[in-house]
Amino acid sequence: MLLLITILAICALTLCVADWRSGMLVCVVVGFLSDIVRKVVPEQPVYFVVVVGVFVAAVAVGFIRKHGLVDFTKIRLFRGPVRLPLILFLLWLAFQSAVSYHLYGSIALIGVGLLTYLAPLPGFLVAYYYGLRIQSSLRFVKFYTFCALLMLSGIILSYSGFESPLLEEVGSGVVIFVPGGILDSYPGFLRSTEIAAWHAAAAICLIVALTVSGAVGWPRLLVALVVIALLSVGLLTGRRKMLMEIVIFAGLYGVLLLLYKREIGRMVKVAILMGGVLGIAGAFGVFERSANEAHRLDVYV
Question: What global pTM score does this model have?
Fold first, then answer.
C-alpha cells in the first residue's frame, strides 16, 4: 500500500510541475485524500495536514517553469490599496522574528513562523494568474464542489449505521454536549466534524454563486436537492456555525451584486435561496419518518 501511494504521489507531483493548471486540481484531490489516508496510517501523524503544501509548491515550480519569475508589483492590487498594509505586515513580521530570536534563540522556530505567514503569498500569485482565465476558475470551483460532495457522502453512511475507520474522526475528536447527553456528530471521510461542516457550507455557497451567476445551467430542482442534502449533512456534523458562514456569504454576495452589477433580480434569487436554506434548517426536525427519528434529529437544530 505504501509503495502504491508513493508511486501515485510521484506521478501527481510530476503532473503538477508539467502542467501547473492541472496541478491545481491535483491539490484539491490530495487535500481531501490526505484526510482519508491519515485515518488508516498508524498513529495518524499530524504531518498529513501539510502534505498538500508539497503539491502546492510543485504547482508553483511548474508555474515558474512556464512563465518565469513574476514581479508581483506589476499586479495592480499590490500597487494600490494593498501596498501599504503589505509593507507594514512585512516590517512587523521582521520585528517579531527579531523578538523571537532574542527570547528563544531558535532559528527553526523563526523559520516555521515565517513559513506560516509567508506561504500564502506565492499561493496567492499562482491563484491570481490561474483565475485570469474564467474557464479555469469555473472548472476549479466545479471540481472542488464535486469532490466535497463525495467526501461529505460519508456522513450519510455514518448516520445510516455504516461503521468504518474511514468514517471516524482523527484522534479522540471533539465531544459535543447537549441536554440529555452527548451529541453524535459525523465527520464523513474528513478528519473532523469542524472541517466537514466548513466544506459543506463552502459547497453550498459556491453552488449558489454558480447558479445565480448563470455560470452553470443546472436544473433548479437539482440545485435545490443538492443544497438540501449539503445542509442536512452539514447539520449532522453538529456544527451549526456553518449556517452563519452561509448567511455572511449571502449578505456579502448580495451587496457586491448591488454595488458592481446593479443586479436586483439576482439579489432576490440569492435571498430566496438563502431563505430556503434557513427555512429547511428550521424545519429539519419536523417532517421525519417517526417520533423516534424526530427526537434523534432534533438535537442538531
Answer: 0.78
